[in-house]
Amino acid sequence: MSRIGKMPISLGSQAKIELQDQRISVSGPKGVLEQQLTDQVQVKVEDGVVTVQRIDDSKRAKAQHGLYRMLISNMVEGVTKGFTRKLEIAGVGYRAEMKNDLLALTLGYSHMIYFKAPDDIKIEVPDQVTILVSGIDKALVGQVAAKIRSFRKPEPYRGKGIKYAGEVIRRKEGKAAGK
Q: How many domains does the chain have?
């Protein structure tokens, strides 16, 4: 039995779940998320607790069991609390700012980079070297944060670039002096 898949999901008082055929919809104070379910798992809702069970012990069903349990759990957490990903910018002259609804990045290139976030994602810039990406869909928040990071990944010699908050960049030694 999957350790993650067998754990029940508590809905709390704010989240509501609707099941139609193989489609699950979770709604809460922050919004609504929907997910298509596979035919390998069954979802049951009883007394504010959601359980996910697989239909048989095939390899495919076992693989899908924990996955769909976590997807539903993330949906419940997203519509109640939301998700936030923090990015930090390091480097002389590197900075970020919001211009209208575009994220404007100065990252040492000859031009500025402008990024428009999807409709469900909110980007904030509390100061010039911090970017906050937030939303209700965990996968989309992570994808947008990864896209912003890809504009200038942190390099190992000086540590310049965009990194996740708390990410440790393994530093390398520069060139050694010749004999």
A: 2
Residue corresponding to tokens 């039995």:
1
pLDDT of 102 > 70? The answer is yes
Same domain? 27 vs 58: yes
Least confident of 7-16, 64-73, 106-115: 7-16
Half-sphere exposure of 4 (CA within 13 A, CB side): 13
Residue 46, CA atoms < 13 Å, CB-side half-sphere: 5
CATH code: domain of residue 123: 3.90.930.12
Mean pLDDT, range 73-93, rounded to an integer: 94
Residue 154 lies in domain:
83-164
- Cα separation, 43 vs 50, in Å, equals 7
Confidence category of residue 1, pLDDT binned at 50, 70, 90 = low
Rounded Cα gap, residues 82 and 77, in angstroms: 6
